[in-house]
């Protein structure tokens, strides 16, 4: 989402994927026989799935939330490798699913996975019913990447870009729609049993704090991402050190 033309992919880039049955993700939790205790000497790999909010559009890479999270965890004595990122500006949930299939990472496992996807579904007026199906599908994939362990998956809510200059005062429309999409991803995440981190209230602080917005007038600044990471770090650290 660098400029209006490329902020979000146009509808013409969407594939005509047939709807799948709306089934919630299934996964395993740790049992005494499968639980792996993470120590500070383990090398831990990290997969970040998403869109422009994951790649950190309009900020330097070290200021993106995956890289700030990686740095914060290493600062807590963990040995985390730089994140593997599957994300591109403008991706819808369908686009992310397609990209994962093309990534060549099938069978690869990660110590933990973050997932933030859906703003472009809202922006492109895609149906909420489709989002329910596709979000459940991509969450199931995220769980698979995380050894099938729901405690290693961290879903972030969709930020509210309605408070940014880009939105042009349409916050009264955009905000409620973002809430509706977040209600979907939260319900699916809670039923699946993964961690859910609500960063949307932080994003709305940008209405009165312009320093939380990147120079492009749309995306979060490194300062906002740091606030997200302050919520994420204790959760991820606790899981990896247990």
TrEMBL record:
PROSITE patterns: PROKAR_LIPOPROTEIN
CDD domains, per database record: SGNH_hydrolase_like_1
Residues annotated as transmembrane: none
Pfam families in the cross-refs: Lipase_GDSL_2 (PF13472)
A GO MF label: hydrolase activity, acting on ester bonds
Superkingdom, taxonomy of origin: Bacteria
Sequence ranges assigned to domain SGNH hydrolase-type esterase in this UniProt record: 48-227
Protein name as annotated: Lysophospholipase L1-like esterase
Species of provenance: Mucilaginibacter frigoritolerans
């Amino acid at each position: 989402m660098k400029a209006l033309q490329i902020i979000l992919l146009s509808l013409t880039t969407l594939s005509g994927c047939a709807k799948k049955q709306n089934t919630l993700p299934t996964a395993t939790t740790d049992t005494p026989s499968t639980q792996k205790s993470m120590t500070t000497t383990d090398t831990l790999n990290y997969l970040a799935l998403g869109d422009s909010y994951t790649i950190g559009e309009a900020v330097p890479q070290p200021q993106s939330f995956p890289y700030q999270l990686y740095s914060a965890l290493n600062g807590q004595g963990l040995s985390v490798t730089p994140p593997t990122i599957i994300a591109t500006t403008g991706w819808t949930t369908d686009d992310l699913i397609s990209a994962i299939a093309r990534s060549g990472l099938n069978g690869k496992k990660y110590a933990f996975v973050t997932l933030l996807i859906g703003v472009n579904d809202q922006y492109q007026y895609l149906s909420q019913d489709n989002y329910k199906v596709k979000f459940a599908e991509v969450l199931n994939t995220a769980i698979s990447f995380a050894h099938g362990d729901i405690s290693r998956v961290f879903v972030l809510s969709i930020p509210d870009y309605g408070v940014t200059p880009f939105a042009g005062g349409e916050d009264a429309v955009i905000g409620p729609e973002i809430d509706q999409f977040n209600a979907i991803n939260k319900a699916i995440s809670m039923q699946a049993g993964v961690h859910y981190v609500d960063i949307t209230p932080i994003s709305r602080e940008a209405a009165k704090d312009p320093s939380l917005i990147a120079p492009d007038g749309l995306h979060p600044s490194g300062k906002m991402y740091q606030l997200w990471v302050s919520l994420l770090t204790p959760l991820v650290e606790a899981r990896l050190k247990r």
